[in-house]
Amino acid sequence: MTRTFTTQVLVIGGGINGAGIARDLALRGVRVVLVEKGELGGGTSWASSGMIHGGLRYLQKDPEVTLHSCVDSGNIQRIAPHLIFRIPFLMPVFRDGPIGPELVEIGLEMYDRFQPLKCGKPHTRLSREQALRLEPALSPQIECAFTLDEWGVDAARLCAANALDAADRGARVRTHTEVTSLLRDAGRVTGARVRDGITGEEWQVEAELVMNAAGPWLPKVARLAGLEVKLRPGKGVHLVFERRVSDLAIYATGIDGRDMFTFPHEQNSMAGTTDDDFYGDLDRMETTEDEVAYVLQAMERSIPSIRRHRVCHVTAGVRPTLFGFGKYEDELSRDYQVIDHGARDGVQGLFTIAGGKLAAYRLMAEDAADRLCATLGVKEPSRTAFTPLPGGEALLDVAALSRRFRIGWPAALRLFFRHGAHAPRVLEQTSSPPGAELATPSPRIVCACEPVTDAELIHAALREGVRTLTDCSLRVRLGVGACQGASCAGAAAGVLAEALGWSAEQAAYELTTFWAERWRVASPALAGAQIAALELHRAADVGARGFTRGDRAGHAGEDSPRRGVAWEAA
Ligand SMILES: Cc1cc2nc3c(=O)[nH]c(=O)nc-3n(C[C@H](O)[C@H](O)[C@H](O)COP(=O)(O)OP(=O)(O)OC[C@H]3O[C@@H](n4cnc5c(N)ncnc54)[C@H](O)[C@@H]3O)c2cc1C
Q: Which of 99, 195, 209, 496 has a CA between 20 and 30 Å from the CA of residue 563?
């Protein structure tokens, strides 16, 4: 018999919007179920540039978007200071460029007025010599350069932090769980049928209201209720370099005149992004060689040596941009809409959130939750602007953390970045056998590129509801660095197998799936010997250890610990 859960609001989609809405509602005491068909943030949010910015680009045509994003960037910095990093930008002006320095500076002076909202610094103008001294990799063809100030965030971690906080406050959060159909009663949407992609189990979730926060998939979810919501989906690709190309973000112009940039992101640099109308299958998105060539060509003009840096993988996602006809992709509004399908289409019980920016997610979630609460008759106001996300409650002495747990500075710093004030409690998880217990556990580094410890993997599995090895690439950045998992995937699979009680077949399945994903995202950017090297590493893990492709089905049934702590916590 299909199990049934009842709740007040079912949120579909664990990207930044769905996770943000679930948290906002849970903080107001509303009962929520959040379902995500993959890993939290694994849709568009993870593929974003991760900028908590105002968007200089939108200033001219969409000043409201810039204003909202700047205001909310300030809020996000307050509630998640550990997840945010400053990104100083350099904008070179070329002698033969379409706009001279005076015009560029007028735009930057306008943007300066928004900077205090997001704790940003005003721009400065640098002479050619000053700019080249600051970043010798810049093209000598520049006339001068400007600085401006932005912020970055680990987008997948921001999604997880919102969802985990919602779970701590009573929400049921379930990953790898897809809405397959909507429940209808006399024309009203009353919930959904969901299917667990790992165990194959099916549930029914009965809800007073359903929020469609499925990002670019939202038209598909709306169709389950016989409704049409039009988007103008825009595919965006980034190249990820194995390490920092520069500690500054550097503007570049595409062959078609589009603004792009190379920017520091966590341990790596990224370059992008493209923005192209997308008509394909969202679940089978590939990056083409043309897209890689287009980005490299743009970057080369600002950083002539860019091709000497190794790209280790790519990211690709689709923007859930609001529909507009007759405009270039870049010119489309980045504004958002909350649609009440009762008011718009006469189908009560269903809402959709479309469009928007990661940088304004909290504000969008507050608006959406206000609309849901008004319908439910809930009077509690939103508290997300000032209630810290998990780990954001206080800053931490990283040196003391490093000493206490005997891990190096880099590991302590990265752990603090992901978990903030909760870092010590993460390190208290250890895989040492009980007989070998130490007064203070000493975690082992599993992934050296990031770095990630065994303690963090165990924490992710047992306290954060991570369900697969591949999920760890988003949750703790396992295997996304220079070696793409070559030196950590096997060891990480072992740690998770022990924590979650996987059989050898399950561990083998996880490992082969992990390698298939690394291959998918790395191969478009690799050439020659690099392809052979990745193949060799994969073979070493999957072939030489005698693993066959395991079988996931049936390994994680009713009583398996793999079902996810967040769901169980509620
Ligand atoms: C290349 C690129 C760069 C960007 N850069 C920035 C930036 O720097 N700053 C910024 O502010 N914004 C940026 N954006 C925009 C920003 O990323 C998006 O606006 C935002 O992430 C959208 O979040 P979302 O939650 O709506 O969608 P998603 O993150 O896609 O979340 C939707 C989720 O719904 C799930 N789902 C779908 N169907 C179902 C179903 N049937 N059942 C259960 N779950 C389902 C999906 O798996 C997915 O995880 C960028 C976007 C792109 C593509």
A: 209
Residues 451, 411: contact at Cβ < 8 Å? yes
Pairing of strands 84-94, 249-253: parallel
**How many whole angstroms from 121 Cα to the centroid of ligand 1?**
28
| Ligand 1 mutation pick, 157, 202, 205, 358, max ligand atoms within 8 A of CB | 358
Residue with tokens 């940039």: 261
What are the per-10-residue average pLDDT scores of the chain (570 residues)? 92 98 98 98 97 85 91 95 96 91 94 94 97 97 96 97 98 98 96 97 97 98 98 98 96 94 95 96 95 97 96 97 92 93 98 97 98 98 98 95 94 96 90 52 88 96 96 96 91 95 94 93 88 81 59 43 42
Distances (CA, A) of 456 to 37, 131, 406, 466, 472: 24, 40, 15, 11, 10
- Does any ligand 1 atom lie closer than 6 A to the CB of residue 359? yes
118 lines ligand 1 (CB under 6 A): no
Those residues whose C-beta lies under 8 Å from the C-beta of residue 162, and which sit 6 or more positions away, are 16, 19, 20, 22, 23, 389
Dist CA 181 CA 188 (whole Å)? 14
In 307-346, the DSSP E strands lie at 311-319, 336-340
For residue 274, the ligand 1 atom closest to its alpha carbon is: 1
Which residue CA neighbors atom 1 of ligand 1 most closely? 236
